[in-house]
Structure formats: C-alpha cells, structure tokens
Amino acid sequence: MDSSSLTSPNFDISKLSDYDKRDLQQQIGNEMQKAKIQESIHNLTDICWTKCITGGISGGKLSSKEESCTQNCVERFLEANTAVLKHLELMRGEMS
Question: Is 54 helix (H, G, I), strand (E, B) or coil?
Fold first, then answer.
C-alpha cells in the first residue's frame, strides 16, 4: 500500500486488499495507543507540576522538596493507573 495514496482526496478503502485493510487497522490502532500514552503523560505532567512546583525554577533545577514531591506524584499516578488496569482486566475476565 502506497502511503501517498492514503492522502488522496479520492481514497477508497473498499479497494484495499484484505491484507492492506488489516495493516491500515493496525496502524490506526498503533496511532491511537500512542495518542493515549501522550495524553496520559500530559495529564501526569500537568497534575504533578501543579501539585509540586510551587515557585520558579532557579538554576534549572527543582528544589529537593519539589523533586521528592514530583517523584512521589509520578509513582502514585503510575500505581493508580496499574490498579485501574488490573481491575478492568478482572472485570473483562468475569464478563467472558
């Protein structure tokens, strides 16, 4: 599949082979996953910055208090996300 043909205004997905349709679906899925990861990183950065960075950054470094707070914030954020994912997996397993 030629990627330049995907940007054509007359692109017709029905003309793709089954292999190309699966490949396109995989690429779209990968891009969606990347977007979700980027959104999570943005949310994490926003939450931890707002919570932990209380003043200006002097000399290009965080204070020891800000650094500790940021590290704890990131760890809690990751732990919470892991717990939610595990719970969703359990729920998904119960539905099957």
Answer: coil
